[in-house]
Sequence to fold (810 residues):
Amino acid sequence: MATGTKPFPTMHPVAGFKLGTTSAGIKTVGRKDLVVMALAPDSTVAAVFTQNAFCAAPVLVSRQHLSTHTPRYLLINTGNANAGTGEQGLLDAQRSCDSLAELQGVSAQQVLPFSTGVIGEPMPMQTLLTALPAAVEALDENAWVDAAEGILTTDTRAKGASLQYRPNAASAELITITGISKGSGMIKPNMATMLGFVATDAEIDAELLHHALQRVVNKSFNRITVDSDTSTNDSLVLVATGASGITIDECNFEQFVTQLEQVFIELAQAIIRDGEGATKFVAVEVDGALDSAEALKVAYTVAESPLVKTALAASDANWGRILAAVGRAGVENLDVSRVSVSLNQVLIVEAGGRAASYTEAAGEQAMAAEDISIHISLNRGTVEETVWTTDLTYEYVRINAEYRT
Amino acid sequence: MATGTKPFPTMHPVAGFKLGTTSAGIKTVGRKDLVVMALAPDSTVAAVFTQNAFCAAPVLVSRQHLSTHTPRYLLINTGNANAGTGEQGLLDAQRSCDSLAELQGVSAQQVLPFSTGVIGEPMPMQTLLTALPAAVEALDENAWVDAAEGILTTDTRAKGASLQYRPNAASAELITITGISKGSGMIKPNMATMLGFVATDAEIDAELLHHALQRVVNKSFNRITVDSDTSTNDSLVLVATGASGITIDECNFEQFVTQLEQVFIELAQAIIRDGEGATKFVAVEVDGALDSAEALKVAYTVAESPLVKTALAASDANWGRILAAVGRAGVENLDVSRVSVSLNQVLIVEAGGRAASYTEAAGEQAMAAEDISIHISLNRGTVEETVWTTDLTYEYVRINAEYRT
Fold:
């Protein structure tokens, strides 16, 4: 199951950024599961990783390589997360970098490894290494769709976003931003999603690029939750090849961030729309908060409440469960008599109780939609925040009960 | 579904404490749904209530009455929670106290009201009030079983615990402690469970009784979670009638607390065993923590992880999900290489990775049990904490998707 029927977008190639995908057979024979990405020599790179203390071996290796070198290659496999694999996992992640580096004549520190899939199984290294030359052979600027498919696990569809914009109205030059993401369960990223790779041909120095990444991640991948579980492998990489020749500086930075945010939100929302067992796409919007922290506390408590999520699955406008979740979110001195709640524009709660104008029929009609917005007004401040989530269905339980079998 | 097959225990009557139950027809005609409890005149009472900001009208009224008077009657209805009902809800809760007080010749402030059931529906007051005399008529010290049935909602069975102990080896005198509880969803009590009523014939002053209640609640009802949702109506009342003539003082207080804790743990665990859709009873034990707060953080994060809970439902020893939950629990400077995990005595993780001795067969065998203990050692301190929870099944989703229909 998944929500929304938007077709896969046109993926504009990014000059200076190539992708090569092959089927190594890491978990399933014949499935695309190994992707190499090649960055033009002068690219800048920014990345964010999971904050889970049990982060996977490739996350540790990527962090270390990034701290001393600018990457030339990204190496991604699906089917095996290389997480919970101890010392051997680190050696394996290192060895995959060594092999690709040797093939391409760069140093191993210029390769960043990424893995996603089952936790706790040893990585089938021979299978992975044997397939490397085929992935390299396939490197091409026009190969985004194959790569988007090559990084999936329980996802039911590939996720991509791409746009071009004209930074200067007086000129014909365009900046391209194109990216892919994956993930549909164990999703509550904390600084990154399961996996995301975004490239632009803008020229931007590493510090400014990192600043841009932080800004947009906090409004996209860090605002989604399927099941409140943060993965051990979450990684998100943003590459700027500079091939367009257009430089991002303080004058056009905000414009760049706005465009970048659009791509990031599209990629993050695509993960929610493909959430495990999802039949609803739900935006939980909180306004009138004193600060961002309390707005997010309320939004996440509602978005992660199993009782709210099962009511959503049943299209049941059970607003009592929404109120109960708001009430336990830990907002200090919350005046419940000022709280109001709307479901897709239908006012269901005002002054802390059922709205006088509310009818079950109106609530049912609002809940029948596939896209639901739960709008909560705390009416005590001016800050607002939005998080996106899914409903909780039988299908979620089935997928996660059967994942390893 | 529910776990465990222990028969309903023998309920020793508590001298000075009577219970009367009837079928008012508040939600379902013919179902026991109205309970009155009568306390001997010199009883002492301690109570704890939900910390949900949206607490129900009867919780507000009970708190207020307790602050000025010692209760003589408890009035409990199921079928309607009288929560999210605004000003009218308060008036209704007050009116039910007035009516019982008038019937029994006490002041309305000597009655505490309790409600459980659907949130947000107006209380059918005429139905409730009409049935009051029948409940009063039924008052009897031997009527614990009827009362245990009369407070249920989605519970599949009544929950009771009862014991007698001899406070002084040299004497034949006994102290009795008997209690009932209800709840199987929206369960993460914070200071109390959905509903619990425990009485003893010990004589104990109100302050010491309250102290005892705090001690045992923190080791029982405040250590369980079905779905992380804290109810708006959680209330727990402990009554000491003094009818045994045995006084609890500083000398025999610890002994009393030990016995009381046994009754409380049994009642709290009964809620978990009857958790919505539960097929497993799961103890999450964390030791080697620096303090209680971090032990509980880890225990709750594991106990509430949808991915851990669905793996439990499938009897899948998916220890990677347990590690991932430990890793995101927010323990500062956690050295993952010191973490070990056992499932029912089978060591599955040591030094942060799969234990050398571990086999899938051993893991499968451990997970096949109905009672599962997940034991997590952080190996950084000496504090340990345990919480109890259930698995997450299709049945949980079905019950909560269909609750109002």
Observations:
- Chain B has a mean pLDDT of 90.
